[in-house]
Amino acid sequence: MLHGRGSMYWPCGQRMDAVWNRGKMEQRRYTFADGLSYRESDWDYCVYPDRRFYKCVVNGLKPAGQILKTNDQPTKIIPPLCYDTGAGMFDPDSNCITSYRDHKKVKISLGSDKDVLKIPTMVERAWIENNCRKGWVEPTGHQEWLHEYWQSGTADFATLPHVSQDDEAGIWWQRLTKFARDYSPADMMNKN
Prior knowledge:
alpha+beta, 3-stranded antiparallel β-sheet, 23% helix, 18% strand
């Protein structure tokens, strides 16, 4: 029977810190392998408007073209018409979630249950199809929730910042313009 403070560790690096009182857990804190702590209420990780992964929160965003598609690196390659559930690959044809490692093997021989991680319920299947990463690209169409008021043409121009010539930004622009004018390639050739 567990009693007092303690931690439970999982093989992949997850940890549960808890306080037990005669075998009953009274307080707990779950920490994922990457260091992200789970909150039971007000969980705002990877949701709109801040959909960054924890690695991006800790290490900052990467430049365009190098953004992370998943928090786990390297990003898994998804076979066509399959979904990445985070625990394995979901194949809608076989209605099975299989391990990343043995996905091709399981797709060929579905007779063995040892390679099948889970057979999802209809609710889980719908959630996977609506929320998980796909192995193909399709147009998403117009998404109203992605647009904010200024893109609708109703922006209030009085609230936009105004840069005067006295501001540092105005001075910076003048310096850049003067530099471009003084050191243009045509002028450099004429001076030589």
